[in-house]
């Protein structure tokens, strides 16, 4: 009997650091001894760049457009430390659904028993989380991914995208869809940011998997076309990503989140905005009294 491949999906608003986080998780998992495939599901096809020294790879959809019959091995490329890299790709600009690449790639790999043949331990789907499109819901809706994680900062639009994701998970949870593993809190450098994301997690019935600070080490590594795990393996940031990878590898129980409705979410955000304004006003007033 073939071993069970652990399949997870990582969602997040565009620009939040989702692919950076995902690639570092994949690299860290490979260093921990796991056989990993990272499955880029963004039409920009840049999910796996830092696993391959900044190199773009042919996508599943582009390859299918060039020839009718495609073997999965034609679109699988090896990256850092043996991580298998795949980019689903998207349609030609202005034509079709952006999620079509995910649907097509998943069907192709399932038909050809790719995960079993490669003897994979973990497959990570890196999915754009701020686009309302049926294709992007495939890893959740079809139950392809067992566990879903969202990358979110304390900024409202990032939280808003995560809350929308929770609505999708909630919708498909009764029909075999994937469940929520937790939040990867990204760019958390200030205490107030941690408090906001902690409160969001509490309100929606989920948990924080890891707090990841914004770090110049990540920027330096990406400018070299590498993950932090590869470029700065002894850095504090690499340690944080490795700890997160360990938690994801060990994670085995996900839950149904309790998303806020739009009115409640807006009020929640407004309340936090007022609290931060009061805090800032108090700090300014205190500085004035001290003669700063």
Quick structural overview:
The chain is an alpha/beta fold and 292 residues long. It contains eleven helices and eight strands. It has two domains: 6-260, Rossmann fold (3-Layer(aba) Sandwich); 262-292.
Count the strands? Answer: 8
Gross morphology: globular
CATH topology of the largest domain: Rossmann fold
Total of domains: 2
Number of helices: 11
Subunit structure: Homodimer.
Keywords: 4Fe-4S, ADP-ribosylation, ATP-binding, Iron, Iron-sulfur, Metal-binding, Nitrogen fixation, Nucleotide-binding, Oxidoreductase
Family: Belongs to the NifH/BchL/ChlL family.
Function: The key enzymatic reactions in nitrogen fixation are catalyzed by the nitrogenase complex, which has 2 components: the iron protein and the molybdenum-iron protein.
Describe the structure.
This protein has 292 residues and is α/β, with parallel strands linked by helices. The protein folds into 2 domains: 255 residues, Rossmann fold (3-Layer(aba) Sandwich), CATH 3.40.50; 31 residues. It contains 11 helices and 8 strands. Strand 3 and strand 4 form a beta hairpin. It starts with 5 loop residues before the first strand and ends with a helix. The C terminus is likely disordered.
Features:
Rossmann fold; single chain; 292 residues; alpha/beta; ADP-ribosylation; 2 domains; globular; eight-stranded mixed beta sheet
């Amino acid at each position: 009997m073939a071993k069970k491949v652990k399949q997870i999906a990582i969602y997040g608003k565009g620009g939040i650091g989702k692919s950076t986080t995902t690639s570092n998780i994949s690299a860290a998992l490979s260093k921990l001894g796991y056989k990993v495939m990272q499955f880029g599901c963004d039409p920009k096809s840049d999910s796996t760049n830092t696993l391959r020294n900044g190199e773009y790879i042919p996508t599943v959809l582009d390859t299918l457009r060039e020839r009718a019959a495609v073997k999965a091995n034609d679109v699988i490329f090896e990256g850092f430390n043996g991580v298998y890299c795949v980019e689903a790709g998207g349609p030609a600009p202005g034509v079709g659904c952006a999620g079509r690449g995910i649907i097509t790639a998943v069907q192709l790999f399932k038909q050809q028993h790719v995960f079993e043949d490669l003897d994979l331990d973990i497959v990570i789907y890196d999915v754009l989380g701020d686009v309302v499109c049926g294709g992007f819901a495939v890893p959740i809706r079809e139950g392809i991914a067992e566990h879903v994680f969202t990358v979110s900062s304390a900024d409202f639009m990032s939280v808003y995208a995560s809350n929308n994701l929770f609505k999708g998970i909630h919708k498909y949870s009764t029909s075999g869809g994937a469940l929520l593993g937790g939040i990867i809190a990204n760019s958390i450098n200030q205490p107030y940011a941690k408090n906001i994301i902690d409160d969001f997690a509490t309100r929606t019935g989920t948990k924080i998997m890891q707090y990841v600070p914004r770090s110049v080490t990540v920027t330096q590594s990406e400018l070299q076309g590498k993950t932090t795990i590869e470029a700065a393996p002894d850095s504090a940031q690499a340690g944080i990503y490795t700890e997160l990878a360990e938690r994801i590898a060990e994670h085995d129980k996900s839950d149904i989140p309790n998303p806020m409705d739009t009115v409640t979410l807006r009020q929640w955000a407004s309340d936090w905005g007022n609290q931060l304004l009061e805090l800032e006003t108090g700090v300014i007033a205190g500085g004035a009294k001290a003669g700063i």
